[in-house]
Records
---
Amino acid sequence: MSRQIVVQKAAQVEEIKKLLDEYNALGVANLQKVRAAQLQEMKRKLKDVANVRVLKNTLMKRAVAEYKNKPDVGKLEPLLNGSNIFLFTNLSPFRLSLLLDKGRVKTTAKAGDVAAMDVIVPAGNTGLPPGPVISQLGSVGLPTRIEAGSVWINKDTMVAKRGDVIEARLAGVLSKMNIKPVEVGLILKAVYEEGLILTAEQLHIDLDGFKKSLIEATSNALNLSLNAGYPTSETVSLLLQIAHRKAYSLALNAGIPTKETIGDMLRKAYAEASSLNTKLPKVEEKKAETPAQKG
């Protein structure tokens, strides 16, 4: 190895150490199957929040082994294998993880790719003319018919489940139909921050599930507060409405006239009087019949 190469590598190691000093966190992400154009686009999107570097694992291993300004950086070493990209950032590890998840893009599948979701081919016109394509579609389980000079799919059909490896035949069919079942992006292996190494599993946040649990918790807390009669800024107006309804009902049933109940009391009295009035002729008839029955 020439002296010039040794000097260059030593300079790169020192640059890595400076980046570790400058930023609070270091993310290690998998660069596998990320194409050059997609990587450039990701770098552009992340430029304001992270310093994104493609570095040799050997240089990173040397840097974390020598770096002493922060505790336990050396514990990253087992992750420094394969094709990696490194993200130096002041974002929280969870924010970084969410940004990378949002930055993933859908793309067409190649043989050996893994489906990122359940792959469903919708019913309808494929726009493809009849020919060899019919047997190709049939070979992956798609029911077809010919109509108006093109091939139609008879019904929505699942051709792969999430996590399935996509074979070459299916990849070709999906590409013809412009269905993109693969997601490409940076997949975090882990993030180092202040002596802690958080794995991808620890960083994953199910936002939809979290929102649902927050809504359920809020609803349960509101119901508990209302049932217990405990006033808060969220419940006080509802508690007052409940109290008003109960007071009103009590006053009405007890016949206590107030400015709120007097109208309904009069209407109630009128309805009862009208009902009684309809019964009076029957009572009079019975009274008139009684002497005759006695005779």
---
Amino acid sequence: MLVIAKKQGFSDLASFRESLKTNPKYMATSSEQIVDDFRKYIAQMQPRLGELFTVLPKIPVTVEPIPAYQPGQATHYQQGTPDGLRPGRVSVQTSDAAHRSLIDDEAVAYHEGVPGHHMQISVAQQLSGLPTFRLHTFNSGYIEGWGLYAEQLGKEIGFYQDPVSDYGRLSSELFRAVRLVVDTGIHSQGWTRDQVVDFFRKSGAVDEPTLQAETDRYIAWPAQALSYKLGQLKFRELRDRARKALGPKFDIRTFHDEMLSGGVLPLDLLDARTDRWIQSQLASRRATGE
């Protein structure tokens, strides 16, 4: 983040963050602008999915604003129906738009849309040979870990062209790290709401409307926020493990297909499944003399 700030002509993060708060290019002017931003990033990712997967979702995805009567809801994904008659939906929080920053829209669009939640959930709905509940089950470590992992995939295929958008991606990473502290603070160390808000503000990770809503979320849903980072680290670990074992034969597309083709799994079962897949890949190569 500091490297980006210096390239933009600032000596430290604090002055760069302050400039972003008043830079009209990165502050929303309307709820429609925020929704359009998400649509733009999801649209640019769609034709590039073939570089990351061989199995693609058949269910379309749309973007819509969260209704005004739900100002406390965070941006989220709502799954469509397997027949595609109801598309998957990225529901974007646009309340208090004048105080919302646009810098992390790209990262959140990849997280909630493609190659994140829409990709993972829609592929799960297409799987055959699994009990029905396995096509629709929920596990935060897996689902949110995948969403956070998906944010970096945009970087790997050449997006985040605007340095400030890339700064937003890193701010998203910082946000997920900060909440490891505040969630634990609330539920283990007896932190007050004011302590959480103060820690959030000093981190500079998110804007004021977001940190207020997120603080209430952590109070109401203990440890769920921790699962994002734990899951992301597991997906990264499994990818590194597979790349090291398979060497030049490692294919990121088939690895990602394997991550999604078993449905939602607890992370320990995903780990064991990945080990079996690696061994099957190695055995296949030995059998063919590769």
---
Amino acid sequence: MPVIRLDCTRCDRNYPAGVLRHVCDCGGPLFARYDLERAAKNMRPGHLALREPTLWRYDDVLPVDDPDARLSLGEGFTPLLTARRLGLAVGLPRLFVKDESGNPTGSFKARGLAVAVSMAKVLGATDVCLGSAGNAGSALAAYAARGGLKAHVFLPRDIPRIFVMETEALGADVRLVEGNISDAGKACVAEATQHGWYDCATLKEPYRVEGKKTMGYELAEQMGWKLPDAILYPTGGGTGLIGMWKAFAEMETMGFVGPGRPRMYAVQAEGCAPIVKAFTEGKPEAEFWEGASTHALGLRVPKPYADFLILDGVRQSHGAAVAVSEEEIVAGVREAAASEGLFMAPEGGACVAALRKLRASGHLSADDRVVLFNTGTGLKYTDSMAPLW
């Protein structure tokens, strides 16, 4: 197993790898650590070019070393697209879109769950579960089906029917819960505790973030090992932002990149913006956002579990957190579709809307190489976007 230990992100405690574990005894999320000197020798650009075009091309810094133990559906190594027309319209001619919509089950959630469910099976789990806003649930179900595990998914009752249908079709035990993802998560924890299921909720186990961090490795490789100046990332639970920040540190240790970092911009909806509020107020953690509401379901997270890690990445990179309205989100989806041929999920549309705000405020300049993340396909959100369309 490539993982040499698990480190707490809050305290100095570490744990041995090779056993099922969720978080540190102090409650802090755990990070997997690797022999990066060894990984650097194996991951030289010439070697990487010959590897499979999935996230598993970075297996030296992923926890599953046995190819037969990887539950893969072809996830990762998604396109990094130039967005010249959109970029010129917003005054950012060096704009790129990292398009995650082609992942299995239609979103970037496939990355984290491919690795998390693979490790759960390797370490002996038979049942996996999580509370989800939609896409994570279907991804969990898909990889559980791939590996012969039983998935238990807890979803808010008000989400579009497509998410329920997809997750049920993939063989999961689906429970509908009144409220939002926080309520679904609480219901999941209660059942998992009672039945001994392995909870794969965001950053409440060590390996989902490892799958998400591969977005950082891909960006670096696809941009010739020169990191962009800025990254706009739609932030609900924030696993991808945290994972990329971890990846950049690993790459620097291995000598693949220098100490410079992209400015990280966390994008949220005005109806659920706990990270924006905490950032603006200079707080180290976010407060629970009462009455969370947005049709960008991946952003309807009232309090991210690892909020302090999101805020650390944003502040250390000299980035910012920005909120956009529901109307701006839909306008962003429409603009990306008409100018670049990309029908984005509303979370991606939020980032398009944020481009204009950050350009106008001076956070982004015309010389910047900017990467915007579209985290999924808009096809799953047609019902929820329809009232504002």
---
Amino acid sequence: MSGLSREEAISALRWLVESGADEAIGEVPINRLLAPAPQQRSITPAPEKAAPIPPPPVVSFGAESAERIAAFCHSLSELKAAVMAFEGCELKRQATNTVFADGNPAGGIMFIGEAPGVEEDRQGLPFVGRAGQLLDRMLASIGLDRQKVYITNIVNWRPPGNREPSLEEASICLPFLHRHIELANPKILVLLGAVPARHLMGAQGIMRARGRWEIYRLHSSGREIPTMLTLHPAYLLRQPSAKRLAWNDFLAIAEKISSLGVAT
């Protein structure tokens, strides 16, 4: 504003402020590739450094969606159709089939495993591979078969490489599983392995938790279901010496079936 009188300069400055100007700049262009002179100071103070934004919690929109969808299912057939149509879990994009359940939901005994494997993904049924064949023999040892029990998993789609489902993947599928248990309304639950024991009962370490009865409470009614935590058949294939522990657990299951009068 060189060449202006004091009054003209003040008038021009007032016009700039009223026009929305909020920063003063110099009359000489600045080469910002050069380091500023030691004495140079900015007319406008630098804004304070923003606090780092914390990462979002591990809660998926898929889980929220699954919870709303599951609440509207009033039969196992409706729930199966909802799970088959659900697109909120990334696992489904790489899976061949949705694996819902197998067996007899009216049998009163519900087994819950971890996730489908290669053969389960191919056939669309739980526990039909090598681990499933061992489970069939374990059931037969206490007078049970797939016409007398009901079988499902924590997640309904195979994780790539048969890895354990992640926390987010499990959280997305859990609303469907909670509703699944409510609609099947079993008298006894059996959790096969560390994954269902952790996600349904909060157990940390299956070897410490197995072999004793816990209580699962239905979300809708609060009804208590006796729940046995035991070893997954796939683990027994890798560690045959642990079969004696699983045998003891299955003897306890047979005793509970008898004491509750569950028809087999």
